[in-house]
What does this fold into?
Amino acid sequence: MNGFDERFLTRNGLAARQLAVLLLNHERDTRLPRVRDFAEELGCGNGTVQAALRLLEESGAIETAARGHLGTFLVRSERSILWRLSGLGTLLAAMPLPYSRRYEGLATGLRTAFEKAGTPFAITFMRGAGARTTALLEGKVDLVVLSRFAADRLIEEHPVELVADLGPATYVGAHGLLLREGASLDAPGLRVAVDPTSEDQRMLAERAFAGRTDIEWVESSYMQLRDLFAQNLADATVWNLDEVQGRIGMGGEVLPLGDEVTRDLSLRNSSAAIIGRTEGAKALSAVRDAVDLSTVTSLQAEVLRGERVPSY
It folds into this structure.
């Protein structure tokens, strides 16, 4: 359908588009639900469902076969056609700014995996998990990429749900404690840089310096760290090492994070998660079933090793 097929503007056509969404979640060579089950889910008659299935077959989206008492099976499906007919459109995902090879690899892997799944996909880049989440809740984007730690907190507080967890070291490689040259962690009134737009970084910094009441918090982004340290305006911070390596160009130390709880937080922060609005559950289910996560992580690793040029 190119937008001109009037058959899909009829009652049967509307049912066909709704069925296309449902069929995105069905594997080939699997038995389809009964017509009356489809009719109950869509709130229409059996005849409408039968007509809708015929429309989908005529459009080339699916091929079915009746196998007697075993029921009707989905012999073949074209995900790209089903997605187009479903009206779900292009999925827009909000990601962090691609300032590291890890994020460039993640964007490359996601784009390729969605293309292989026959799902139109685009990426917009936004700094700060808070800004990306606001865009999701306001319906400006369909998916958001952030750390699993931030995702878990958002799922508790908002009508969003987890679409995928890509595993450790897919969001960041590691966090470390950065100490300015000449500064001492034991010095009273230690000035610690914290990024107000990053829930992850703020929580890690708070945990790393838990129990200290003398800390002076200095708001900063990674782009300001070099100047803050050089001008003696901040002494330390906890930061994503992917962001600062090769960018700060300063003396000082990178120290490991502290206790077991902090390391656990750091591990969850290192995993990339994808979330979407709960109200789009059918589309999210289709995404889960279609996207091969191993493709994402494999291509990301190739970009990190310098074996693939980022493409997103």
User: Anything to note?
Assistant: The chain has 13 helices and 13 strands. The first helix runs from residue 11 to 23. The chain has a mean pLDDT of 87.
